[in-house]
Design brief:
The protein is an alpha+beta fold. The chain has helices at about 1-55, 145-190, 210-260, 265-290, 305-320, 340-355, 410-420, and strands spanning about 75-80, 85-90, 110-115, 125-130, 135-145, 305, 325-330, 335, 360-370, 370-380, 425-430, 435-444. The strands form 3 sheets. Strands 2-1-5-4-3 form a 5-stranded antiparallel β-sheet, with helices on one face. Strands 7-9-10-12-11 form a 5-stranded mixed β-sheet. Strand 1 and strand 2 form a beta hairpin. Helix 3 (about 210-260) runs antiparallel to helix 4 (about 265-290) and helix 6 packs antiparallel against helix 7. The longest helix is centred in the first third of the chain and has 56 residues, at about 1-55. The model is unreliable at about 400-405 (pLDDT under 50).
C-alpha cells in the first residue's frame, strides 16, 4: 500500500512538473520572441524615421547612397510614388522584393510586418514602412536570423532541461513520501503483531500533530479499549464460572447426601432445589445481559410507558416485605421504552435496596428537566464513594463473602444500567441525604 502511494505521488509530481514546464516554457518562449521582435522593429522604425527626416529637410546624400544604419538594421531604402528606389543603404540594383510589405493605413504614417523568407531556406524579415514627404516611402528591413536563433536556443534548452527536472521532481516526491509514510509502515508492522495473547502491544507514536500521529494515537486508543474489553470479558467468564460452580457443587453435595440415606432428606432436597433455582436465575440474567450486549439488533421496543405506574405495580406485587417499602409518585411520569425491561430494571434496583436496608426503602418517580427519573433510596450502610461506579460491574460485590447467602446473582445492578443505557439514559449511585444509598435511573 505504501509503495502504491509513493508511486502515485511520484507520478503526480512528474505530471505536475511537466505541466508547469510546458506552460511556463511556452509562455517564456512567446514572451522572449515578442520582446525581441518588438526591439527589432523598434530599431528599424527609428532608422526609417531618421531617413524620413532627411527627406523632409532635403538633406539626402548625393547619388542616393544612404549611410549604413546603426543598431543592427540591415537595409533602409526610399522609393518614390512610382515605386522606383531613389536612395538606399546598399546597392540599388540589389533591392530585395518588398511586394509583400504592407502600406500604412488611413490616419497612420507607419506600419510593420514580418515577411516570409524570399527563397527556400532563407530567413524571415521584419519590415517597417514609413510615409515620407514628397510621396516617398521609406522601408527599413532587419533579417530575423538572430531572433530565430535566440528563440530556438531557448526552446532547445527547455526541451533538454525538461526530462531531468521531471525526473528530479518524481524522485524528490518518492523520497519525501517515503519519509512521511515510514511511520505508517511501522504502525502496520506493529499492528500486525497484535494477537489475542498480546493485546498490550501498542503502535509507535511518531509525535507531532499531523494526520499520521493522530492515526497512531487513534489506533492505540482502539487497542486500549480492546484490551479493556478483553479483560472485562475474561473477568466476566471467571466470575460466571465461579458463580455457577458454587451452586452446582452444593446441589451435587446435597443430592449425594439425600441418596446416601435410607429415606430421602427433605431438607437436603429443598436446599438442592433452592440452589437449582439460583442457577436458573443466574442463567436467566446471563442470557438477558447477552441480549443487551447484542448491539442495535437488540434495541428495546419503544412505546408509551408511565414510570410511576410501573413503580406502583412493582410495590403491589411484593406483598408486605420485612422492610417497609414506600412509594412517592405524585403524578404520572411519561416516558418511551420497553415496559418489560424497564420493569426489570426497577425491580433490580428495589431488590438491591431491600437487601441492604435496615427499616425502609423509598421509591420516587418524577419528571425533571426533560428526564423521567426513578429514584430508589434505602437507609442501609450506603455505598462508598470509590465504589459507586464499580457496583454496576458484573458479579461485583462490596462484601467479601462469595456465598451470596442473602440471595442475588451479582448481575442485578449491571442489568439495570444496561437497560437504562439501551433507552438512552443511565443509572448512578448517589449518597442518600440521611445516609444509605440512592440509586437514580434516568431515561429521556
Amino acid at each position: 500500500m505504501v509503495s502504491g502511494i509513493r508511486a502515485r505521488t511520484a507520478a503526480a509530481a512528474a505530471l505536475a512538473m511537466a505541466a508547469v514546464l510546458a506552460g511556463g516554457g511556452l509562455w517564456l518562449h512567446a514572451l522572449l520572441r515578442a520582446n525581441l521582435l518588438d526591439n527589432t522593429t523598434g530599431r528599424a522604425e527609428l532608422a526609417a524615421r531618421k531617413v524620413a527626416a532627411q527627406l523632409d529637410n532635403r538633406t539626402l546624400p548625393p547619388g542616393g547612397r544612404l549611410p549604413v544604419p546603426e543598431s543592427g538594421v540591415d537595409l533602409v531604402l526610399v522609393q518614390d510614388a512610382a515605386g522606383r528606389t531613389v536612395a538606399s543603404t546598399g546597392d540599388p540594383k540589389l533591392t530585395p522584393d518588398l511586394a509583400g510589405a504592407p502600406r500604412p493605413g488611413p490616419g497612420a504614417d507607419s506600419r510593420s510586418a514580418v515577411l516570409p523568407p524570399a527563397r527556400p531556406g532563407g530567413e524571415r524579415r521584419a519590415v517597417v514602412v514609413v510615409e515620407a514627404p514628397g510621396a516617398h516611402t521609406v522601408y527599413a528591413m532587419t533579417v530575423l536570423g538572430d531572433v530565430d536563433d535566440a528563440t530556438g536556443a531557448v526552446a532547445i534548452g527547455l526541451l533538454a532541461g525538461a526530462p531531468p527536472l521531471i525526473g528530479f521532481a518524481a524522485a524528490l516526491a518518492w523520497w519525501v513520501t517515503g519519509r512521511a509514510l515510514r511511520p505508517v509502515s511501522a504502525i502496520r508492522c506493529e499492528l500486525a503483531a497484535v494477537t489475542a495473547s498480546e493485546l498490550d502491544r501498542r503502535v509507535p507514536d511518531p509525535g507531532g500533530a499531523d494526520e499520521i500521529a493522530r492515526l497512531a494515537r487513534t489506533v492505540n486508543d482502539t487497542l486500549d479499549r480492546l484490551e479493556r474489553s478483553d479483560a472485562r470479558q475474561r473477568q466476566f467468564t471467571a466470575d460466571a464460572s465461579h458463580e455457577l460452580r458454587n451452586p452446582l457443587a452444593a446441589v451435587r453435595s446435597r443430592l449425594e447426601v439425600a441418596l446416601a440415606m435410607d429415606r430421602p432428606d427433605r431438607e437436603s432436597v429443598a436446599a438442592a432445589l433452592a440452589d437449582t433455582e439460583r442457577l436458573q436465575a443466574i442463567a436467566a440474567d446471563l442470557l438477558l445481559l447477552a441480549r443487551l450486549d447484542g448491539g442495535p439488533a437488540s434495541a428495546p421496543r419503544s412505546e408509551p410507558v408511565d414510570l410511576a405506574l410501573l413503580a406502583a405495580e412493582d410495590a403491589s406485587r411484593r406483598g408486605g416485605p420485612r422492610i417497609a417499602l414506600r412509594l412517592d409518585a405524585r403524578a404520572p411520569v411519561p416516558a418511551s421504552g420497553d415496559p418489560a425491561r424497564l420493569e426489570r430494571a426497577l425491580a433490580n434496583l428495589v431488590d438491591n435496596a431491600l437487601r441492604y436496608a435496615r427499616a425502609e426503602v423509598v421509591v420516587r418517580a418524577a419528571e425533571h428537566d426533560g428526564w423521567a427519573v426513578l429514584e430508589v433510596t434505602d437507609d442501609g450502610p450506603g455505598i462508598p464513594e470509590a465504589d459507586r461506579d464499580r457496583v454496576f460491574e458484573r458479579f461485583v460485590r462490596l462484601d467479601a463473602d462469595r456465598s451470596r447467602a442473602g440471595g442475588g446473582t451479582g448481575l442485578g445492578l449491571a442489568i439495570a444500567r444496561e437497560i437504562a443505557r439501551a433507552h438512552g439514559g443511565d443509572v448512578h449511585a448517589l449518597p442518600a441525604p440521611a445516609g444509605g444509598a440512592r440509586l437514580v435511573l434516568r431515561i429521556p
